[in-house]
Design brief:
29% of the residues lie in helices and 23% in strands. The protein is α+β, with helices and mostly antiparallel strands. Strands 1, 8, 9, 10, 11, 12, 14 and 19 form an eight-stranded mixed sheet that branches. A five-stranded mixed sheet has the order 16-15-17-13-18. It has a four-stranded antiparallel sheet with strand order 4-5-7-6, with helices on one face. Strand 8 and strand 9 form a beta hairpin. The longest helix is centred in the first third of the chain and has 20 residues. It starts with a helix and ends with a strand. 44% of the residues are buried.
């Protein structure tokens, strides 16, 4: 009788704990809505934060940014040239269609098809063949010994597995979705909100905990703060650290995490006088990064080089670069050497999203001190994305996603003709180093490659790296299980619940 009682109490306890986690509706306020829904095309953070909860990749990131199985229940680098994935059985798309090996093959054929113009294509250009083996396995054969470097790409949104049947039916994936993720898109009112509902077919038992997530788009920080304080939303993204004073401890929870993404000045390296590396280098010397962090981020951030300083063993530290030491006298000297002793004028295209406009204003004031006049062109977000894609700028203020893998961070951005090389940057030595970084197996030799690459990128400055901000969310006290990752992923919404 006593033994039975213990078992019964344990059963009741588990039931109570699950009841606390199961069900409910979460309302989250975000500043930016998606720019398209096709996981193989979108590059905007706002799209990725939604799509990572609708679609799945073969792998995904868990806590501490460790790669864990997802659609692939096993992943094995058989040798430096071969990766084999065992596809999980019982996975279904949101329309109830079973996921098959054919869907996985179709996905990577689509990514690699030049007509798709997928930014992920650059990751897989050294894949020699992809084929099904043994019924439920996929084998990737590589042209170079880069299996370890390639693996993190399979966790990215741009490598999400899509339904062959859905795509071949003529559906527009920029407007409609059909993934295997924990939530499906139930409703989307552009400019207003999205509703994600629990996927009844999700292959992780008892997940997600929530029945529904409503994402409301509130570009203005004051609106998000007011909505959270008034109880209109449960959790909100906060960009202005000063606003944290409005959320008293005990009534609200604050979530803070350093991020891999970084603010930058992107430069069109084909436009005079910015086509001269010496001029770009002068701008780097003239920028006081610490001042930008203090004024724009209220000290919630760190100066970053080409890689976030926390990404070890790969990152060179900002203090290792002379160009990162604020030195307007050196900047003027370089401008004079380049033939611009009295400075010059150029335009920075930017948007109000993510405080880009505020960063631009601080830089405008700093460059004025060396005689460089900056015209700020503030444009609507959609126009900003269009001009970015078309390299229609002298320079722009933006933010790039970071990575724990240098090949992911650098290859498509700085390789000649890279899919996100909107700077039109081309350097044969950089191309050579990027290829070496992919194919070198020895970690120490690989580090030497990326050390040299980082030094060149800072010296030539097709991008002027600025800083990485802390990400901050605030919720009411009913929320539990919410976690942030350094890559700004919100994949842990699947484990979030309301008490």
């Amino acid at each position: 009788m006593k033994k039975f009682l213990v078992v019964l109490l344990a059963t009741v306890l588990v039931a109570v704990l699950f009841a606390q986690k199961s069900g409910g509706r979460l309302i989250i306020a975000m500043e930016t809505e998606p720019v398209g829904l096709d996981p193989h095309l979108v590059t905007a953070f706002a799209s990725h934060r939604v799509l990572e909860n609708i679609y799945d990749g073969l792998l995904r990131y868990g806590e501490n940014m460790k790669l864990i199985p997802n659609i692939a229940e096993e992943a094995q680098a058989v040798d430096p040239y071969t990766i084999v994935f065992k596809i999980r059985e019982g996975v279904k798309f949101h329309d109830g269609t079973p996921l098959t090996v054919e869907d996985v093959l179709f996905t990577f054929e689509r990514i690699l098809n030049p007509d798709t113009k997928s930014p992920a294509a650059a990751y897989y250009q050294d894949v020699e063949s992809i084929k099904a083996i043994g019924g439920n396995k996929i084998e990737f054969k590589l042209k170079k010994p880069m299996a370890s470097a390639l693996l993190p790409n399979f966790a990215g949104v741009n490598s999400s597995i899509v339904s062959k049947k859905f795509l071949e039916s003529g559906k527009n994936p920029q407007l409609e979705t059909n993934g295997t993720g924990p939530f499906y898109l139930a409703e989307y009112v552009q400019g207003n909100y999205m509703i994600l509902k629990k996927n009844p077919y999700y292959f992780v038992k008892d997940q997600p905990y929530l029945d529904e997530i409503k994402i409301v788009f509130m570009p203005e920080e004051v609106s998000r703060v007011a909505a959270l304080r008034n109880g209109d939303v449960d959790i909100a993204k906060v960009n202005e650290p000063l606003n944290l004073k409005q959320f008293p401890e005990g009534k609200f929870k604050v979530y803070r995490s350093p991020v891999l993404s970084y603010y930058l000045i992107g430069i069109n390296t084909t436009r005079k006088p910015l086509n001269d590396p010496k001029v770009r280098n002068a701008l780097s010397y003239a920028i006081n990064r610490e001042a930008i962090i203090k004024v724009v981020a209220f000290s919630e951030g760190v100066v970053t080089g080409p890689l976030n300083p926390a990404v070890q063993p790969w990152a060179l530290q900002p203090k290792d670069f002379e160009e990162y030491k604020y030195n307007p006298a050196k900047a003027k000297e370089l401008l004079a050497q380049a033939g611009y002793p009295n400075g010059f004028e150029f335009e920075i295209v930017t948007s109000q999203r993510y405080n880009f406009d505020k960063v631009a204003e601080v830089i405008q004031a700093q460059l004025a001190e060396i005689g460089v006049k900056v015209k700020i062109n503030l444009v609507e977000w959609g126009i900003f994305i269009k001009r970015w894609r078309e390299s229609d700028f002298d320079a722009f203020i933006s933010m790039n996603s970071g990575s724990i893998e240098p090949d992911i961070q650098f290859y498509r951005t700085f390789h000649t003709g890279g899919s996100t090389n909107v700077f039109l940057y081309s350097n044969p030595r950089v191309d050579e180093l990027l290829e070496l970084g992919r194919s070198t197996v020895d970690v120490m030799k690989r580090k030497e490659v990326y050390d040299e690459l980082q030094r060149i990128l800072v010296k030539e400055s097709p991008i002027i790296f600025l800083y990485s901000a802390n990400q901050i969310f605030v919720s009411n006290t009913s929320i539990d299980g919410f976690k942030l990752l350094p890559n700004e992923s919100l994949v842990f919404l699947r484990e979030t619940y309301k008490k």
